[in-house]
Structure formats: C-alpha cells, structure tokens
C-alpha cells in the first residue's frame, strides 16, 4: 500500500472531457497529517490564528493540500506537492514523505527543536519562491486553458484557505457572511498584500490612543504601593444569605496561582460578623495550616453560607444574579513588581472603591449609559447570558471593564479623523481596522465571561469552549497596563499583521465579500471560477453568529463609518447562517420538532450554497470540501446538497488535522481528521432519465465499497481513530449513492443518503471487529452484547454521541431506544450515550437472597436467574457476584449455571477483555475471575490478550502527543 489513500472515479462520457486533478489521485496524506499536528502546538501557530479570536480554523498544510490538489493535474508527484507546500529539507527532492514519517517515528530521540529535528522550518512560515511560483503557474496555465485558475472560498471564516491561495499568487475570492471574520479577511487578504507594512504608523497611533485612554482610566486601577501596577484582578460575586444575611462569595476554589497539588498562591477568606475579608497566602507542601484552597463555598453549583451553613441552590443563586442582587468583588490582584516579575495580593477596600468610581462614572455619562446597549440574543444551547441578568451586551462587563472599553473607543474616535487626514483612503482604512482588531481582541480576556486561569495565575480566554459559560470567577484586566493591557494586545496584533505582510509580499490581493454564500453569482459571475475550496459550517457544532455578537457590537462602535457595508444591522445576521440552530424555532413546533425544523433549515441553506457554487464554477470546475464532522445528519445533509446541486463526487481523502481530545471540542461532534471530499461540475448537464435505482441493488455495493475503503485505510498506516475510519469510508459510500441517485425502496419511496451511511457504518464496524477482535464466535453473540462490545471497540470510552450509538445499534439489529428501559445497558449523559456497568444494572444478590425488596425497574438483571437473555447480562452478573460475595461464591455461582460450557458466556468474557481499558472496573474483575479456582473452572484461553494496564507503546505514543501540548 502506498503512503496515500484515495477513492476516486471521474465521471465522464469520453476520456477527453476534463482533466483529472491531483486531488482525484493519490496524495501524501501521512506527511501532511504529521505537519498538521506539528502546527497544532499553541506556541508556534500561524499569525492568522492569533490575530483575533475565531472558530474552527484549519491547519495550513491541510489547506495547502486542498488548494494545490484542486488545481494541479493528476499525476503530480507526492514530492512535487510536498515541495510546493514547503515540506521537507532543502536538497531533498525524492521520498520526502518517507523522510517526514521517519522523523516523526524517531521524534522521541531529539534533543533540539522540532525544526532542527525535521531539518526544515514549519511550512506556514515559508512561502513558495519566485522560481517555484513560475513553474507552478506555467503548469497551471497548461491545465486550465492558458489562464491561472481562480480559487473561491464561499465560507471563508478565519481565512486560512484564501490566504494560502494568495501565497501561491492565484486569483482568489473570499466570501463570509459574518462581519467579524470579514474584518479579519480584509486585513489578511487585502491590506497585507496591497497596503503592506504599517508597523511604524500603527505604533504611532497605538501610543496616542493609549495615552488618551490611560489619562481617563488611571484612577480606576489604584496601587497599594508605589510601582506595584495592577495587571489583572480576579473577581467574583457576593450575594446575601437569606437565612443569616451574611455575605457569601461565589467561590468554587480559592487558588490564584496553583503551582502543584498543594503549593501556590491562594486567597484565604476570613468570616466575621456576617462579613468577609481576604488574605493572600503562599502555600508550600510544608505549610502547617488547616486551610484548603480547594474547598470553596460552591459545590455542584449550590452555595453554602460560610456563616450559618445554609445552602442556596443553583436556581435561586441564578435568580439573584439575574435580578442584580449581588455585588462585584475583587478578591485577588496580580501586580507588576518593580523588582522584577509579578506578585499577588488580596483585594481590599481600595479596589472596591475603584469599582464604585467606575459605576458612578457610568451613571453620570449619557454616552456610557448607552454604550454597547444592543440586546443579547443567544440561545440556551450555548448558555444565554441573559439567564444571569446580562440582557444587553454592555452587561457582560463589570463597571470598570465597561468604562475601560469605552475610553479606548473614545480615544480611537478622537484619533480617527487625524488618521484620515494624514493618510490616503486605503492606508487610513487599514490602520483604523487593525487598531480596531486590537481593541476587539481585548474582550477575550476582559469580560465577565473571561475565566481566571489558576494554573497560570493569569486571565484566560472567554471562549475556552464554544459557549458563553457563566464564570463565578472572572478576570478584570487592566487595559492601561503595559504588560497585559492594550499595549501588549496591540503589539501582538501588529506583529501578526507584519508577519502576514511578509508572507503575502509580492502577491495580488484577494477579492473579499461580506454576504450570503447563497447569493454569490451576482458578485463573481456565473462560470467564472475554476476551483472552489470550502470549509463549510458544521451542522450544529458552532453557533458562529451568536458567539460573534460580543465582538460585533464593539467593532461596530469603532468601524461603522470605515466599513459601513459590514455593520448594517444591530447584531450579526443569524437568519441566513447555515447552522442547525434549534433556538430559531422555539415556539414554532407543531407536527415537527424544533430540532427537525432546524435540520431542515440547515439542509435548505446548505443546498442553496452548493447550488450557488455550482453556478459560479465553469463546466468541469472542481469543488473540494474540508469536512470535520462525524454526525450522520451532517453527512446526510452534505451529500444531498452536493447531489441535488448536480456535482459528481470523484474523490475522498482523510487527513489527520486535529490534536486528539481537544479541550474545546471534547464530547463534540467534530472528528479528529479532516475529510477532503471532491466533486466536479459536469461539462454537460446530465439528462434526466426519470429512472430510479432500487436500494436493495445499491446496498450491497455500498457495503462492499465501505469495507474495501476501511481495509485500505487500516492498511495505509494513516493515524486514524476507529471512529474516523468509519467517517473516511463515507466518501466512497456517497459516490456509489450519488452514481445511482435517485434511490428508492420497494415501495417507490426515496431513500436518503443516511441509509447508505448507516449501511457503511455497519460494514466498517464488521471490518473493525475482524481486524481488532481475535475472539472467535463474536458474530454468534446476541445483538445487545455485540452492540455493547462494538461500542467499546470503536469509541474506546463509555461515552459516545447518541446518533452514532443508535446507528451502530441498527447495524446489529438493536433499537437502543427500545432496550434502554428494560436493560439499563445505557443512559444519557449530556445528550450522549453512556454505557453502564454491572453496578448500574445488577440487583444486589445479598438482598435478593434475603428476599428484601429490590427495584427490578432500576436494576433489571437478577443475578439469581439460572439463564440470561443476553451474554452481557451473564457476565455483569458474574462480576457482581465475585465483587459482592468473593471468589468461592463466584465459583459456585458459575458452576451451578454450567457456564464453563456456555460458549456465549466465554465469548463475551474474552471480547470484553479485548475492548475494555485494562484499568476499567469490569476488566479488573474479569481478570480476577480468570485467575485462581474460578479461572481453573472456566479455563478460558486469553493468551492473545494484552493484560498490561499500560504498555511501552502507549507511553511512547503519549510522549509523542505531549510534544504538541
């Protein structure tokens, strides 16, 4: 098997219809996947990842591969592609992919930097040379009838695809519905290549803004001692106990900077006469104190009064916050130590007085009273701030934060007219926009949604997860501070811009549009684009518009007269956004649920986008989609949109693109691999024959193609999880479905793509079982037991997305909803399926034997039964008996039921030992059962199973992953 994996089939009526492209052939996927992971190191990310917060940005190598693969001819060698992508050391012209893989395999031996070990810098830092561009353009003109192909990204987001396109000096068009990333696109795709360096000018006006704003804000950040400038304050809320009227801080923990388990800086509360005061303490392992900073007043969202012990429940606390019945409290302060470094102190009356002055300033200034007063419109799905009383966007700031943001905006406005007078229109526009990005970026670490990072003793990002999570502890950043405020933020933004300028030097600017991707032809023209490369919205993964509103309202205050076309509405455009947003359909449910209405709305919008892309492409043009989603509904929508738009699916490729277990996406529907899915616009419109294909005829081919793809993927050496192997097999499955579309069942009713995807999931699960399960007789087990084992095999955890678990159940003949109540084999956890163990399912045998009342509804498995309906029930009963009554009783229990000769029981035991993590409680008990007298009785051969809790390979793999953390 080669380094590449592809499934491709170019539809054409004759051999000369259109030229096959590189992306429709073999690609160097392993090397590109390795580079994707290298780029994931947060210390060394591309400038477009830092310039301003945005969501779901893709790695540079994956974007480059998608672009180059979509415009270069098939037959382009892996070495040529990788060289153009700036992967590989100078002088190495052959076997680059093998070289990269070898470096990755031996990476644990390195003693220098990654760049030194690999022998070349990170690809995103390098642009193709003039000679490389000349050769590339010559080749592309031969492929595309004498012209360079135009690359279009219709849902450009953070801009990695169009930016990489202009680095190859290709005609580029970028469109984005949301104004917040559109501002970023302006900077990346227009100002960087067209206006160029503005470093001196940006610092000049940055310093003037800083001077003006700091003069208005100095009294809001008082210092306790000369030279100890406040850098950031850790804030919480004080509520009043309804029982004793004492002051209650909403504190989960008291750490300010936790260096290790018991060491670090903490704030120690002192409670007296119903009040609270704070002391900053330094704790070491040898500290002789009964104070535990890990024990705050909040536990499981409820609050315990430190004065009288009465509990205020979460719902009641939320109502107090919503009604404004609280006080902001600064309990800890990080300051700049003039002797070097920084230090911490407790919050005190001086800090509270500063908050009071900010509050008084707001009440006395009409403009401040209306600043950022747009209404918050956020769904409960991503934690509606209004639930906690934040009904206008100004409310996501405490008084001092709001005044700070206001004064910087005022200072900017005062400088704006001077900037317009001093520079030409384009330069002035660029300076004002980049300075605004600096101000907008400050929200990320200076709002009531911005948490305090106790591990670093430092303000953290607002969007650590894709929602507006309420923070009982938040950071109030001193924007006047040189170290952590406006100066530092703007320096980082300016540095990012100057890096972008260097990367785009000598390149033509892109065309940037802010509008609906379903209305593109009016801007770019029909048939004017050769290649569309897009990273579309992912169903319901990210509510982009709602998350952007906080940035939008501030940017509008700055830029409404600079980019009036971007800021035409009070908030961002949510009605045209292609996401499955159930909140838009609350109160509209009828025959259809709001979830179904949201799904249909998403399907309709995606269909409109792909139909519009079809119109913008010339006949024979290519569409490559970067898709990082594992939910069947999302793939169902994607495939129907492509098919109905008229595209012919020609290739799919899986690339490792994300770090496993990303914190922000943990438990989400996002896969760890990106699937590149490619389709072509036919040279001639397909004739409608009016015929349909029977699903029974398509299903066997679908399963066959899925199994073939899975085996090729498993043999390819690509670092794919078992889940991603299933997702990667969707591509060839969809091609079969699309080639036979429309597909109907025996009743003549149309079959949706999701049925083909379900068949593919089932087929790949069989391949995974064949490959990873050595247990003989597994296919003879009952459906429920097979579903339980396969779930552990594929997801390698007890929790998985509900839709995937349901689809897996269908594949083995089990409706998981029907069996849930009677078996208690699974339960719901935050909308996901969580597999249950014997402790959640089996009745207490001691109580049953003593004829005590035991709930069979809560615990449906009776361990005293002589026979069990499911193999998993027998095994769970055995583990329960062993743990409850010991090995002798377990021996009697097993022998009484003749389980030595029960193949179903023996097969279930060995299968579970193969798939369960070795530290899992069931695995540990089964290992105990298979030892001693019970083991001699059962005599189950487990010599093929690795019973090490953690092997050397796992440690090596973890060490490799740690390099990127």
Your description of this structure?
It comes from Halorubrum ezzemoulense (Halorubrum chaoviator). Keywords: Plasmid. This is DUF1156 domain-containing protein. The strands form seven sheets. An eight-stranded mixed beta sheet has the order 1-20-21-19-18-2-3-17, with helices on both faces. Strands 4, 5, 12, 13 and 16 form a five-stranded antiparallel beta sheet that branches. A three-stranded antiparallel beta sheet has the order 6-7-8, with no helix packed on it. Helix 15 packs across helix 16, helix 21 runs antiparallel to helix 23 and helix 25 packs parallel to helix 32. It contains 35 helices and 26 strands. The C terminus is likely disordered. The longest helix is centred in the middle third of the chain and has 24 residues. With 965 residues, the chain is of the alpha+beta class. Helix content is 43%, strand content 13%. The chain folds into four domains: 336 residues, 3-Layer(aba) Sandwich (Rossmann fold), CATH 3.40.50.150; 230 residues, no CATH class; 86 residues, no CATH class; 190 residues, no CATH class. A hairpin with a 2-residue loop joins strand 7 and strand 8. The chain starts with 6 loop residues before the first strand and ends with a helix.
How would you briefly describe this protein structure?
By secondary structure, the protein is of the alpha+beta class. Strand 2, helix 8 (160-167) and strand 3 (172-176) form a beta-alpha-beta unit. The model is unreliable at 7-15, 659-671 and 948-965 (pLDDT under 50).
